[in-house]
Amino acid sequence: MNIVVVGGSRGIGKAIATQLAGDGNQVLIVGRNRETLENTVKEIGKNASFYQADITKEVDSLALAEYVKTEFVIDGLVLSAAQFPRQETKKSVIEPDVAELSSILEANVVANYRFVKYLIPLLQKRIHPRIVIIGSTSGIRQDKGGVYGISKWALASYAYNLRDECKAYGIGVSLINPGGTFTETRVKKSGDDHSLLESSDFGILVSALFRMSPQAVMERVDIRPIAGDTY
Ligand SMILES: NC(=O)c1ccc[n+]([C@@H]2O[C@H](COP(=O)([O-])OP(=O)(O)OC[C@H]3O[C@@H](n4cnc5c(N)ncnc54)[C@H](OP(=O)(O)O)[C@@H]3O)[C@@H](O)[C@H]2O)c1
Fold first, then answer.
1. How far is the CA of 23 from the centre of ligand 1 (A)?
2. Which of 107, 166, 197, 228 has its CA at 20 to 30 Å from residue 59's CA atom?
3. What residue ranges do the domains of the chain occupy?
4. pLDDT tens-digit series, residues 193-206
């Protein structure tokens, strides 16, 4: 299969792209930083290529959709890019200013909504197309989410509605909600630190999702560390 992983150059998206490429799929990873994209493609090795784009910019999003249309026959889309809140006020819905809320909604909801709109006509032509949306447990719990939580609740609502509407197009839509996960920016304190999830957990999960029978869809999966949400 040919799978586009937006946010595939680092973190959870990178782990997903690495696993999918290892399974023999062609992956096109998307991110803003060219050097990171180049390094990740080198690391993944064969089956990986990249496209540099800022998904929040309409012009980039459209250019990426055009590229996919002409150069990459897409079967699957994984949406893993996100904007995170400022650390100091991350649990608050009073302190962050309106501009921060707008910008986080733009990045985590509007950008994905727009890009999917461009890709639906391409995906619906394929035999067993899938869209995988990476949400967060902040999009299902009712406290401590701050403005990021608002965006992930909106994204979850979008995913549920898209799942329903895409039945008619034969496109499977999945929402994966990670709890806290180790990435390049959330690093382990020591080798036996199990307080957060491993990024590779999402590679395993999304790999399984793409290998299930074509009529099966994982509608929503929530994954937390055994200790629960640690934020
Ligand atoms: N890590 C966690 O603890 C955790 C927990 C719950 C949910 N999640 C969710 O999991 C997903 C991945 O998180 P992560 O921790 O793996 O993030 P990350 O390590 O910061 O990686 C984000 C990826 O998205 C790309 N990206 C960010 N903004 C972009 C934009 N505007 N256009 C294109 N690419 C963009 C980044 O590359 P560039 O910066 O080069 O663009 C990078 O490849 C997010 O949806 C996040 O909300 C993460």
1. 22
2. 166
3. 2-223
4. 999 999 999 999 99
